[in-house]
Design goal:
Blueprint lengths: L4 E7 L6 H9 L6 E8 L5 H11 L3 E6 L3 H12 L4 E4 L5 E2 L3 H11 L4 E9 L6 H8 L4 E4 L3 H6 L10 E4 H7 L11 H9 L5 E13 L6 H4 L4 H22 L2 H21 L7 H13 L11 H11 L2
Parallel strand pairs: 1-2, 1-4, 2-3, 6-9
Antiparallel strand pairs: 4-8, 5-9, 6-8, 7-9
Helix pairs in contact: 8-10, 10-11, 10-12, 11-12, 11-13, 12-13
């Protein structure tokens, strides 16, 4: 069987949600898929559930490892993948029945490095409809060649790899994997590295992914407990991405857009601290900006972002 799509599922203590996740995979309308489940040291009966499903469907493979965190589990899955396209599914979420087929059909219409698709929130998301539409809806469109719009301006390109499918050829060519040194922001780092190295992007409006937002013990809900901790981790993400971009010499073309992203990603939260309690984060961020010479792109900033840069420069 020629494997068209590899689904990588990192698993850690999700016994309650795992059956629905796996059922959504084995009942995909595209049959030529492989389902790679990486049990990341679960202490509940998740591994038992995985092995039971693997006995039922030969397309499911189960890898058990000591806990390495989400990036490490995804990397283990990547190393085992044989599909032409790679998709990532969180183990408490589930796909629409036609998710893999819809992605595959899109890649056959034209050469495609990355496919980005829409998302449903389950249960219904409590935020205002405008926020939901801006963040998780997608508008069908194609981009031929990387432009800053794809990464920085298109709201559909928010860094959630579970709503994206990647060409295995692109992943092999770039050698990009998830950063295992950080257990927060791995999606941001991955996307900021791989998007500038892709040439063909397909955005499709179909909502193929069902994201379970309300699980209280989910990884996303438990990683950051305070704004101070969030900023510490966000700046570590910026440091990792900035170092990579400097190595690739991408600032020469996209320095202004990148600096805008950095400022909008972090500074509003820094300024939200009471009585300057978060100013240390502002100083640390400004040091990163200075270290990599990003101040030279100040002229390309709009007035709002010039003020943000000025404020952290005075902390």
């Amino acid at each position: 069987m020629n494997t068209k799509v590899s689904i990588i599922i990192p698993v850690y203590n999700v016994a309650e949600y795992l059956p629905r996740c796996l059922e959504s995979c084995i009942h995909q309308t595209l049959h030529d898929i492989e389902i790679i489940c990486v049990d990341d040291g679960s202490t509940d009966n998740s591994l038992e559930i995985l092995r039971r499903y693997a006995r039922m469907d030969s397309r499911i493979s189960v890898i058990h490892q000591q806990n390495k965190g989400l990036p490490g589990a995804r990397n283990t899955g990547l190393a085992a993948a044989h599909g032409d396209y790679i998709m990532f599914l969180d183990s408490d979420d589930y796909y629409a029945p036609n998710a893999c087929e819809r992605v595959w059909v899109e890649t056959k219409e034209a050469p495609t490095d990355i496919v980005i698709f829409g998302t449903n929130i389950v249960p219904a998301y409590p935020q205002p409809e405008e926020w939901y539409a801006w963040t998780l809806y997608t508008r069908t469109q194609r981009f031929w060649g990387f432009t800053p719009e794809v990464l920085f301006e298109n709201p559909s390109a928010k860094p959630f790899v579970w709503r994206q499918a990647f060409s295995a050829e692109l992943l092999k060519k770039t050698g990009i994997v998830f950063d295992e040194s950080l257990r927060y922001g791995e999606d941001v780092i991955f996307q900021m590295k791989i998007f500038p190295q892709a040439t063909h992007f397909a955005f499709i409006s179909d909502r193929l992914y069902n994201y379970r937002w309300s699980r209280p013990d989910s990884l996303m809900n438990s990683q950051v407990s305070t704004l101070d901790a969030k900023l510490t981790k966000h700046i570590s993400v910026v440091e990792a991405v900035t170092a990579y971009w400097a190595e690739k010499n991408w600032f020469r073309e996209y320095g202004g857009e990148y600096l805008t992203w950095v400022l909008q990603y972090i500074v509003p939260d820094i300024l939200g601290g009471e009585d300057g309690s978060l100013s240390a984060h502002g100083r640390r961020l400004y040091q990163v900006i200075q270290k990599y010479g990003l101040e030279q792109y100040r002229k390309s900033l709009n007035m709002e972002n010039k003020l943000l840069l000025k404020k952290i420069g005075k902390m």
